[in-house]
Amino acid sequence: MFDELINELEQKSKEAIKTNEGDYIENNLLHCGKCHTPKQCEVIICGKLRRPYCLCKCESERVKAEEQEKKRREREARIAKRIEIAFDDSTMREMTFAKDDKLNPKLSNAFEKYVEDFAAMRDRGQGLLLFGEVGCGKTYYAAAIANALLDRGYSVRFTNFARIANELGATFDKQEIFDELNSYSLLVLDDLAAERKTEYMAEVVYNVIDARYRAGLPVIITTNLTREELLYPATITERRIYDRILEKCVAVEVKNENRRQKDLGKSQKEMRKFLGL
């Protein structure tokens, strides 16, 4: 019975090995005519010499290359899927460090370093709080970080509290939403304090921040709040939220020329020229 099993395995190995014109026999073993390495090996099983078939060098390299290509395609597919669900606004995929105007190289370098050291940042649950005036580039920097991490294979979600509140309102299983938000390596929350000032919304903001805090996961937050508003909030609820944020997020003030006004001025000038005004 055992002998029959060995014979069957030996036959299957023969069927699995592709033979080509130019292959030849040397020392009682089949050799590849291309790389001149054996397609058979000798083994002794239960005192009996066997010559099962095996991969020659070039065939082994081909199989290895195919496996690597398969893994590459699978990785690209995973990244593509992550990108698809990462942004609520697909135009943010264009906000990258490569397209950064470097108006503030110190900030650009700091945020690129955050990406470089993200594995350590993630382990420490270390996030960022980008605050500053409207149009100074906070969202762009946050999206550039998100895009860079997506390209490195990390899972990222870029959203805002208003959208999260809508998702919570549309489901009975609210814990499922919080679990989903905690499934990402990085959560980016854009425009804190732009949401409606209601007790319910304040609880949504706190619960999202607190869930990431308790899970030890990093979050990047952008806001138009001033330093004074962050340090000296007007209400107890806001203090609960901001204390949580400042405990795990490095506060970075973003000071740049107002990009939106600059872009608006450029487009206005181009359009007036086109119209002959």
Structure write-up:
This protein is an alpha/beta fold and 277 residues long. The protein folds into two domains: 2-60, no CATH class; 87-263, Rossmann fold, CATH 3.40.50. It contains eleven helices and nine strands. It has helices at 2-16, 57-86, 105-116, 118-124, 138-151, 161-169, 174-181, 199-215, 227-231, 236-248, 259-275, and strands at 24-26, 29-31, 43-45, 48-50, 127-131, 156-159, 186-192, 219-223, 249-253. The strands form three sheets. It has a five-stranded parallel β-sheet. Strand 7 (186-192), helix 8 and strand 8 (219-223) form a beta-alpha-beta unit. It is elongated, with a radius of gyration of 29 Å. It starts with a helix and ends with a helix. 23% of the residues are buried.
List the helices and strands and how they pair.
Layout: H1 2-16, E1 24-26, E2 29-31, E3 43-45, E4 48-50, H2 57-86, H3 105-116, H4 118-124, E5 127-131, H5 138-151, E6 156-159, H6 161-169, H7 174-181, E7 186-192, H8 199-215, E8 219-223, H9 227-231, H10 236-248, E9 249-253, H11 259-275
Parallel strand pairs: 5-8, 5-9, 6-7, 7-8
Antiparallel strand pairs: 1-2, 3-4
Helix pairs in contact: 2-5, 3-5, 8-10
List key phrases describing it.
two-stranded antiparallel sheet, Rossmann fold, alpha/beta, 2 domains
CATH architecture of the largest domain: 3-Layer(aba) Sandwich
- Anisotropy-based shape: elongated
Global mean pLDDT: 87
Beta content comes to 5-15%
Structural class of the secondary elements?
alpha/beta
How many strand units? 9
Number of discrete helical segments:
11
Number of domains: 2
What is the fold named in CATH at topology level of the largest domain?
Rossmann fold
The major sheet is characterized as:
5 strands, parallel
Major beta sheet, strand line-up? 6-7-8-5-9
Radius of gyration in whole Å, from Cα? 29 Å
Element string (H = helix, E = strand): HEEEEHHHEHEHHEHEHHEH
Assign a percent range to the helix content: 40-55%
Q: In whole angstroms, how far apart are the ends?
A: 95 Å
CATH class of the largest domain: Alpha Beta
| Low-confidence spans | none
